[in-house]
Structures are given as structure tokens and as C-alpha cells.
Design goal:
The chain is an alpha/beta fold. 21% of the residues lie in helices and 28% in strands. The relative contact order is 0.12.
Length: 419
């Protein structure tokens, strides 16, 4: 007799994405948008990775909590994620901080961002909650994490990265026993506890949590009644459960989705300008560590209806060309040369210009004879003719935001100050 396959747990789960953070280390890139709304990879936004993981895992109920400068994010979600249908038991809720609990209270922490919407969540009657950070780049099958949670009878299951031990000092670190039960949770430890089977590595929290919904709501109500709590999962909820319940670590390598071209489990926090630039430029490699061309695990996003990219002019010194580069639709490369660059939708790059290791966000205009090296150009910037960036570090630092690794972030405000 054929054994019956278990029903996917994702069908009875809700993904709740915490997308309210500013991401201040991205500097001017988050002056007008929250970190999850920052553009990434030529067509997508950072939040699309967590949302796509949920959708591809089989989860059909999703909530997104927003707070800081949310308009760009909300507009993107409305345009790109509006295909869920209530008659198919699907839902997609955008949940801005709206003072639903108190007329003076916005979301006070990550746990409060869930608690304030408890009635909405409970109304759906889902068995499980998958709490996600909306600001990381990775591909992961949450069904596998849900299955571990149920099989082990855990109160909370926490997604964890294996990182070299002394690189874990900036993370929340799980101290686990031989069965990956969490016996202590340490925030940014100077001497991170090692993994028993890998003494040179530590388990760092990914900010991904799985709970049974009823248990989570009990914990959130208990926490909300504690005047000493900061209303945060990492600082309050998780340490309490580690001490008083059963918390289990889920290693990312067990559920990381990889195509045949991806050798390592890929996860990036693109939280600094350098990390953001590197992760984008890495996509120009012949075989990048992150395969965004994987049709078995697509990254869904708002797909604008745009004409194809266009390369024009074929004269010596004035040839529209791109080498080891990604160029999105509606771009016109007019007699300019791109090398190892990533160009988002709607760019215009004019004659005799060269872009080398450039990340150019949507709708930028690069004037003639510009020479730009190791730059991130914010959305809609108009680069003046003849601008040179990347040759004189001192001059670059006076005019633009120049990072420790020599990457220049360029915004329209900075350009306007040049006049």
C-alpha cells in the first residue's frame, strides 16, 4: 500500500515579514525609502527575496509590517504583490504602524509589530507563523523549517547561519547542545559559543522564527504586559522561551535553495554601502554565487512593461557595449562602455562615457564623457557631462559619500552641490 505523503505545513502557515526598519548604514540610499524597499539585482527590491521564498515554499497568507518611510515599499507591494486571491484562501496584508493599540503608540519593536496586528492574524486561523526579516538576500524553503519545528515539538525554531566563530560577534548567537537545542541566546558576544560538531563556527540568528500561532500570541500578550520589555523578539521573546520552553536551531544549509550552479549556501545582509555594492557587482561574475536565473525558484517582483535594452553607435571610441554586465529593460547605452556593471531599468548612458563596477539604480541619466568607477548611483540621478569619479580619492570624498573600500555613493543632492 502506497504511503500517504504528509500535507504541506506551509498551507496552514502565515509568513509575517518585518519590513519597518530604516537600515541607516545604507546612508542616503534609505533617506527616502526603508531598507527592504532598496533596489537590488537589476529588477528587484530586497524584500522580494523573503516574499518569494514564502510564495515558492507554498505559503499563501502573507503579512508585511511597515513603518519607516514606507511609501516606496507600499507602492511596490501594491503593484507587484497584488495577485493573491481571497477565494483561494490567499491573502496579502500590508500592515503599516497605525496606532491600533494606542493613539500614541507606533510599533515599539519587532514583537510589538506582530502583537498590534494579533486580531488580523488570529482571524485567518492559521496554525503556524513564520516571522521573517525583510532585508536579507537569500533563497530558502520554509516548508523544511516548518517540518523540523513540528517533528521536534519545539516552542520556537530559529533559522541560523553557520559563520566562522569570531565573525559572529555582531550577531545574536545560539549556544546549542549536540541536538541543536538552544541552551542560551547571546546578543553580540565578544567570545561566541562554538557549535559542538564544528568548534571553529558559531550559529548566528537569521531573524527567522517559526511558532505555533496560539503559542506565539500567548507569548506576545505576556510580553506586552511586562513594563520592562523592549517588545523585541531577539531581546525579549526568544531569551524567555530559551529559558522557559523548548527553542531549537534550524541550520540554513538544510533548507537553502540552490541551483546546480550555486556551490555554497548564499545569504547576505546588504546593510552597508560596501556590502550592497559587492552583492550587486558579484552578480556580474560568469558563475555568480547567487543564481537569479534559477527558474525553479523565481524571485517575484513588480514586472514593469518596458521596451528592451538598446546599444547604439559603432565607431572607434564611441561604441555602445557592455562586458560582464547586467542591463535591465528600457536602458539605452548610446556610444558608452560598461564593464562589470549592473544597470537598472530606464537608464540612459551617453556617448564617450565609461562605467566600471557601477551599480546604477532606475531612471538615471549619465552625461557624455563621464568616467565612473566603483560607484552606486541612486535612483533618478543626472550625472553631468565630464564627471570623473574613482580616480582622485580625496576629491571623491569631498563631493560624495566614499566608503572604506573606495565605493562612492552618489545622490542628486550631492550632484546639485557641485554647481
Amino acid at each position: 500500500m502506497e504511503q500517504k505523503r504528509p500535507q504541506p505545513l506551509a498551507r496552514d502557515a502565515m509568513a509575517y515579514v518585518l519590513a519597518g526598519g530604516r537600515g541607516s548604514r545604507l546612508a542616503e540610499l534609505t533617506d527616502v525609502r526603508a531598507k527592504p524597499a532598496v533596489y537590488f539585482g537589476g529588477k528587484t527590491r530586497i524584500i522580494d527575496f523573503a516574499l518569494s521564498n514564502a510564495l515558492n515554499s507554498g505559503i499563501r497568507r502573507i503579512g508585511v509590517a511597515t513603518q519607516y518611510k514606507a511609501h516606496s515599499l507600499i507602492r511596490h507591494l501594491q503593484r507587484g504583490w497584488n495577485f493573491f486571491r481571497p477565494e483561494r484562501n490567499e491573502s496579502f496584508d500590508i500592515l503599516p504602524a497605525s496606532q491600533r493599540v494606542s493613539e500614541t503608540q507606533w510599533y515599539e519593536g519587532t514583537a510589538d509589530a506582530v502583537f498590534q496586528n494579533a486580531d488580523i492574524i488570529e482571524d485567518y486561523g492559521v496554525e503556524y507563523m513564520v516571522i521573517l526579516a525583510g532585508d536579507h538576500i537569500y533563497k530558502m524553503d520554509y516548508e523544511l523549517m516548518l517540518r523540523q519545528h513540528v517533528d521536534e515539538g519545539a516552542d520556537v525554531t530559529i533559522g541560523c547561519l553557520e559563520v566562522p566563530r569570531m565573525e559572529a560577534t555582531g550577531f545574536g548567537v545560539m549556544h546549542v547542545d549536540e541536538k541543536d537545542r538552544i541552551i542560551a541566546f547571546v546578543e553580540k558576544p565578544a567570545d561566541p559559543p562554538a557549535i559542538p560538531d564544528k568548534p571553529d563556527y558559531a550559529l548566528a540568528s537569521m531573524g527567522i522564527y517559526v511558532f505555533r500561532t496560539a503559542f506565539l500570541m500567548d507569548q506576545l500578550r505576556r510580553d506586552a504586559s511586562d513594563p520592562q520589555s523592549s517588545r523585541d523578539f531577539g531581546k525579549d521573546i526568544i531569551p524567555y522561551i530559551v529559558k522557559n520552553g523548548k527553542a531549537v536551531a534550524h541550520r540554513f544549509a538544510k533548507s537553502c535553495v540552490r541551483s546546480s550552479f550555486e556551490r555554497e549556501a548564499y545569504w547576505r545582509d546588504v546593510g552597508t554601502v560596501d556590502a550592497y555594492w559587492e552583492a550587486n557587482i558579484d552578480l556580474t561574475d560568469i558563475t555568480p554565487e547567487l543564481d537569479i536565473y534559477d527558474r525553479d525558484w523565481p524571485i517575484w517582483t513588480y514586472a514593469e512593461i518596458k521596451p528592451p535594452a538598446k546599444f547604439v553607435h559603432d565607431e572607434e571610441g564611441r561604441r555602445g557595449s557592455a562586458i560582464s554586465s547586467l542591463v535591465a529593460g528600457d536602458c539605452i547605452i548610446s556610444g558608452a562602455a560598461l564593464r562589470r556593471s549592473l544597470i537598472f531599468t530606464g537608464a540612459r548612458v551617453n556617448s564617450f562615457s565609461s562605467l566600471d563596477e557601477a551599480v546604477v539604480l532606475p531612471n538615471c541619466h549619465v552625461g557624455r564623457n563621464a568616467q565612473l568607477t566603483r560607484v552606486v548611483i541612486d535612483r533618478g540621478v543626472k550625472i553631468p557631462e565630464g564627471l570623473v569619479v574613482g580616480e582622485d580619492p580625496k576629491l571623491d570624498a569631498q563631493r560624495f559619500r566614499r566608503t572604506e573600500k573606495g565605493v562612492c555613493l552618489i545622490t542628486q543632492t550631492m550632484i546639485d552641490r557641485l554647481d
